[in-house]
Amino acid sequence: MKDFEKIDKLLCEAISSNNEPDEKLNQKIINEAKKRNRKKYPNRKIVSTVAIAILIAATSISVFAIWHLLTSKQVAENIGNESLSIAFEGEDAVIINQTQKSCGYKVTLLGIVSGKNISDFESTVENIYPGRTYAVVAIENDAGKPMPDLHDEEYGKVSFFVSPLIKGQDPKDFNIFEMNGGYSQIVKDGIMYRIVECDNIEVFADRGLYLSIISSTSYDVKAYNFNTETGEITRNTDYEGVNILFDLPIDSSKGNYEKAEKYLKELTAQQTSQDQIDIEYLLAESTLIQDSVQEVIPDEKGIITYKFDGKNLKADINIMFKEGQIGLSDNYYIDNNKILVFSRDIEGVITVMTYMKK
Amino acid sequence: MDVAELSQLIESYGKDVYGFCFKLTRNKHQADDLYQETFLRTTELCHKIDNAQNPKGFIIAIAAKTWKNQMRKYSWRHRIAKMISFQDDLHNEPQMIETNTPEGSTLKNELYTIVDTASASLNDKLKIPLYMYYTAELSVDEIALVLKVPTGTVKSRLYKARKMIKEYMEENGYERF
Predict the structure, then answer these.
(1) Is B14 helix (H, G, I), strand (E, B) or coil?
(2) Is B84 close to A333, i.e. CB distance below 8 A?
(3) DSSP calls for A307-328
(4) DSSP class of residue A148?
(5) Do A236 and A303 reside in the same domain of the chain?
(6) pTM of structure
(7) Spelled out in words, what is the top-level CATH class assigned to the domain B1-80?
(8) At what angle do helices B107-120 and B151-171 cross, to 10 degrees?
(9) A19 to each of A152, B41, B99, B106, B167, how far by Cα in Å?
(10) Contact A320, B121 (CB under 8 A)
(11) Which of A2, A9, A11, A195 to substitute to test the interface with B, most B CBs within 10 Å?
(12) Domain end among A272, A294, A317
């Protein structure tokens, strides 16, 4: 049996789950759903009327609009993001509708919007960087061949990397990967629509912003030229593949030099420290729970067990500490109230302790 | 969605959805909460379920999204120690590492434990498609659909997850892998 088959078979057996929901839990869900349904009844008619109104509006657009593409708002609706579709109707949204062609593909930048809590799909980083930017592009085959949809075997064979870029910042260091980005995508009537999102980039509006589209799974340094003196980013015309570059027409008055610099510093720090939190600083600001301090002895596999305050923790000490590492381990556990840390002294004695956050 | 439709969904997919929730949370109480929240959210988004296509994938996707949001809500700071089990309730001993392994426990059980432990240490990007594939038994195409990524990306994440698990096992003396 080949290695792949072995591990595949093993995974099938080892991580399949035998856990089942108990009947009481299922009944609890059904009861809760019944309760919620009762509350919804009075609104049912209104919802239906609104739904019909939306349907009429959408039909009217498709009949009368010359534009053959969905609007940014419609793309958000099709992806199931109602809040974002509303944001694309708002004053802060910018309708762009610019098209560029490259290497057999036609890409239209439909629109862009930025703001706090404007999407139904919350980003995990929004509590760190409040506010996100959303840009919508349509990608078509220039010869009119439909783009493969999700069920098509061809789907994903040509990948596109869509990323905002900042004038003055090397795109290999600052692109959507670093800017906590992501995307949602649909294919409708043979046209691929993608909503890309990242941290709010409006703070860079006074410097200049771009939107790049490359036929690649990640940023390709060969696709664009970065002028280190002027900070300009331009297309590499010799690039073999799609390498489109739009200027993002965000109101330059939204730029904020200080905030932008702070953000860049944070991103740079993250890149260099790999998201390290200053644990010693955090501990200095917290109170050690004396009763929580325990010396632990690893078992023959290197597993330590720590029980405190109704919690049971197990950890592989070989992973917690590098060979010869003394002091606090690089791994620790933080929740809303407590910090749990591991320490090893010169004799190899391992101590686990819990701090209460102030 | 009426109660009969919800019951039907629970009956058809409840076990797979619960298994997926349990793998993500590794704690019965949290798994129960996630499972309940997932089905209640499903009733709100029922207009988006395409029964002919992939209702299980749709529900699993809701579970994954709810899980990610809960992680954010509880402000866990992504520095949870690797290879760790953390239980809020001592009465729910983790499956991941058996504290009272019977003397006669087989090598196979140890093997399963180490694979399970290794899978738990992966980041969400790799762990979620891995559990979708092996625990919830979604196909690569279904995972691509629910995660809204190309099938190639799913394949590559599964490949990476297997590779990391394999490496972990080799580091722990299972050289035949």
Answers:
(1) helix
(2) yes
(3) EETTEEEEEEHHHHS-TT--EE
(4) P
(5) no
(6) 0.45
(7) mainly alpha
(8) 130
(9) 35, 21, 19, 21, 27
(10) no
(11) A11
(12) A272
**Whether residue A222 is found in the same domain as residue A154:** yes
Sequence-distant contacts of A321-326: CB under 8 A, at least 24 apart: A321/A350
Out of A21, A301, A342, name the one closest to residue B35 (CB). Answer: A21
pLDDT in tens, B21-44: 998 887 788 888 889 989 988 887
Q: Quote the tokens at residue A225.
A: 């030229």
Give the number of residues written for chain A.
358
Minimal C-alpha gap between A95 and chain B (Å):
25
State whether residue A4 sits within 8 Å of chain B by CB: yes
Residue with tokens 């992973």: A319
Residue of chain B nearest A218, judged by CA positions: B153
* Token digits of residue A213: 């589209």
| Rounded CA separation B129/B111 (Å) | 21
Structure tokens at A275: 């998201």
Contacts of A248 (CB under 8 A, 6+ apart): A112, A135, A164, A201, A209, A210, A211
Measured between alpha carbons, how far is A148 from A190 in angstroms, rounded to an integer? Answer: 7
**Would the CB atoms of B32 and A12 count as touching at under 8 Å?**
no
Q: Do B2 and A37 touch (CB under 8 A)?
A: yes
Give the tokens for residue B57. Answer: 């994938």
Cα angle: B105, vertex B108, B114; to 5 degrees = 100
Which residue range is the domain that position A340 belongs to?
279-357
B86 interfacial to chain A (CB closer than 8 Å): yes
Indicate the domain borders of chain B: 1-80, 102-177
Question: Residue B10 forms beta bridges with which residues?
Answer: none
> For A1, which residue in chain B has the nearest alpha carbon?
B177
A74 lies in the same domain as A60: no
> End-to-end CA distance of chain B, in Å?
47
Whether the predicted pLDDT of A316 surpasses 60: yes
DSSP bridge partners of B109: none
Q: Are residues A229 and A166 in the same domain?
A: yes
User: Structurally, what CATH architecture does the domain formed by B102-177 represent?
Assistant: Orthogonal Bundle (1.10)
Phi/psi at A217 (nearest 5 deg)?
-85, -15
| A82/A221 same-domain check | yes
Q: Can you name the residues that pair with B102 across neighbouring β-strands?
A: none
- Give the nearest partner residue to B68 out of A15, A80, A124, using CB atoms: A124
Nearest 10 degrees: CA dihedral of A284, A290, A295, A301?
Answer: -70
Secondary structure class of A261 (helix, strand, coil) = helix
Chain segment B30-87, per-residue pLDDT in tens: 888 889 989 988 887 776 666 556 788 889 988 988 887 766 544 333 333 333 344 3
Cβ–Cβ below 8 Å for A124 and B134 = no
Checking if the pLDDT of A342 tops 60, the result is yes
> Which residue is associated with the tokens 């909503």?
A195
**How far from the centroid of its chain's Cα atoms is residue A134's Cα?**
12
Q: Tally Cβ neighbours within 10 Å of residue A56.
A: 10
CA distance A103 to B111: 50
Same domain, A152 and A118: yes
